[in-house]
Design goal:
Shape: globular
Oligomer: single chain
Strand content: under 5%
CATH topology of the largest domain: Growth Hormone, Chain: A
Number of domains: 2
Number of strands: 0
Mean pLDDT: 79
Structural class: mainly alpha
Low-confidence stretches: 4-24, 475-480
Radius of gyration: 23 Å
Amino acid sequence: MIDASYTHTLCGVNTSANETKKRTSTLAVNLSFAALLLGLLMAQLDTNIVVAALPVVSQDLHLGAGVAGVTASTLLTVTVFTPVWGKLGDVLGRRFTFVTSVLIFGLASLLCAVAPSVAVLIAGRALQGIGAGGLIVTAVSGVAVIFDREELVRRQIWVTLVFGISSLAGPPAGGFMASAWGWRSIFYVNLPICVIALLVGVWGLPKEPSRGSLKRFDYPGALAIAVAGSALVGVGSSSTIARTPAYAVPLVVVMVLALVFLVWRERRAPEPLIPPSVFRIKALRETLVTTLLIGITLFGTFTFVPLALHTGASVTTEAVGAMLLALTIGQLVIVLFFSVLVRRNRNLAAWTVLSLVMGVVGLALLTVLPLLPHAAAIPVAVVGLALAGAALGLSLQVLTLIGQATAAPEQIGQVMGTITFTRQLGGAVGAAGFGWIVLLAPDGAAAPAVVLGIAAVLLMTAFLSRPREIPELKGDGGGW
């Protein structure tokens, strides 16, 4: 017969062991999440900091026309490697892609910091973009693997804060560091952050079981993405190219041909980078179409918003920069509200409609600026900018959640990489197409308003393609 006191003691030991195991598991999950957030913050913050420091960099290295290459090289490699990192994450695990991305990002930052010439700096920035692409895709796919759908909604506010901090703090931080400590400091500061991210990632991120093999990796598909990505970045990163048909038309043709080959290849590849099965899921297919339209209309028109403010509302060049803060503030505010309210109303289809409505109204308000007197045009412009920013921020969060909730666990990286690539593709196509409209418009002053009006009408078509049948965001026992 077992002594009662012994049984009581044994139960206490088991309970204590279970509690310890639970605390350890919770700590590991939180460390994993912290590592992903830190990587995402590095990738997002870097671009905003570098853009603000470009005047100092240009003066020191005498960049001249090469200044565009400092940002375009990063955009190119981020775009091209996004689907590749997604596939690698699904095959080799998020821990591998995170550690590799951090190492690449850190080495690239060091190369940029010691760059003696423009060529070395651009090469370093291109390498930095490869690492940044891995950090972004690993973060958005990793959180979907770590958490079930219930917890995913609760954690969304932290992802939102990362985007908000990078948007608001990046430009002033870049300007201050470049002026106070020299432009090389904006790259040196990444090194200790990379070390911290590496330690937290190695300790916190679990090793996932391998799915598939790299022996059948889709290299022709990767090459097609590289060609299409190079063409779309060439069009989307330069207003001169976008507005010059002699340059833009051949690039768009190359991009279309590469995408046609990519579709043909992915339907036949044994291990495709973008699996065709993704497009057989109605919610994902609608999400990708909506993402493309949002990329064209909201991302693709950003180049023309300052011009619309200047010509339509008679805003001075100095004041345009201050007014553009309304875009960031609108984006940050609406997503913070969404992160809180989505716990009560989890109808992502309704949130998608709200983002589209705000986008259409915001673009429409910016369209009518030339028709308003100056006193009325300023507040209307601020409201329009805030709504456009809110639409962009909300749509990014909602469509990302839909992708995370709908994708199969073994394809989460590929799905998130495809969504990101589709958004970038839309932005480049929009920049080129709207650039041609501005070039061909008979009245140069009214051209930006015409572009924004066309974008508003085009965004309305997204109501027809928006995702409607979306899985419920509730716990499903998922996670690592």
